[in-house]
Amino acid sequence: MKCIYCGQDKKPSREHIISAAVLDLFPECYLSIDMTKGIVHEADPVIKDVCSDCNSKIAYIDSYAKDFIGAYFLKKYSYDENPILRYDYTLLQKVLLKYAYNDLRAHRRDVSFFDQEIRNYILDEANCVPMSNIIIMAGVAVNRTPAPDFLYGNLKLQMIESPMLFDETMVDFIDYNEWSFKLREYPKRLEMPDLLMSYAFRFNSGQFLLLCFEKLKTDIEQEKIVLECSYPYAVLNETGEAELPLCTSYLNYHHLGMVCLKWDPAFELSYMAQRANENNEALQELQQKIDQIEKQIVKEHPRKYVNSS
Fold first, then answer.
1. Which residue, 65, 66, 73, 67, is CA-closest to 97?
2. Fewest CB atoms less than 10 Å from the CB: which of 7, 43, 51, 66?
3. Separation CA 141–CA 158 (nearest Å)
4. Pairwise CA distance, residues 199 & 165, whole Å
């Protein structure tokens, strides 16, 4: 086998699509659902196209991912919280790039974005200069819908290729006075001609967008301004600190791949749903039962591995 990082013929080793160190933070997430293939694995998906030497070299990324996610996103946030995120921008780029690269290879999709420069960037722990053609956006995921999390199953860890950034609102009000509205059947998608690859990630209460552009063909700073003005996400940068806004609404909390505009009335609907449910004792009791069930799941389903390549 030729290692996908160094290109040498070596014995393959297991590489987790999402780091085992991160999966260890969520032991109740024992099922892996591959929506593309329509398969459910009772195991951690892995690929076997990385040599053990390169796998050891990129272990520093896994360590950072565990510490970073463990520090900020194991807890749930309320709808009026805006946590201050402190991060290493280069390492965070590498975490999301590594996961996206793993996922693309597992599904045998186009990995041309990951040229030798990008692969060396991921491999080299000493390289602390972030890639200038990559934008990372972050926000807080809070359930403000009438449907509690457990009705949709365990969605704490998710990743999806090519999320849809809407170029118009999902909700179209007919009459504000009567509070009558309709949902757009086919809302427009934001077009970014130089965008080569994009991913959305959820780590429990944290959501991230990874946007990768052609080199030297896009005014990245202009794109950052447009994106931060349009969407309820903070655009991260080398300062290493950002206040995270609430990025989920009534309509997209359970749908990671849908990114609403800041001014979408879906956020107004979300506020109404939140107020209606925040003191619902029956839902609180159900959530406590679900928490106990998750603890039992951890005992009954030890981690396993499945080869996805």
1. 65
2. 7
3. 12
4. 11
User: Under a CB-based contact definition with an 8 Å cutoff, are residues 134 and 226 in contact?
Assistant: no
Render pLDDT for 24-68 as a digit per residue (tens, 0 to 9).
999 887 777 777 777 777 778 889 999 999 999 999 999 999 999
E strand or H helix that includes residue 270: helix 266-277
| pTM (two decimals) | 0.88
SS3 55: helix
Radius of gyration of the chain (CA): 20
Question: Residues with Cβ < 8 Å from 288, sequence gap 6 or more?
Answer: none
235 HSE (CA, 13 A, CB side)? 15
Among positive and negative, which fits the CA dihedral 219, 220, 225, 231?
positive
Residues 165-209 have pLDDT tens digits of 999 888 876 666 656 677 888 889 999 989 999 999 999 999 999
Domain ranges of the chain: 80-296
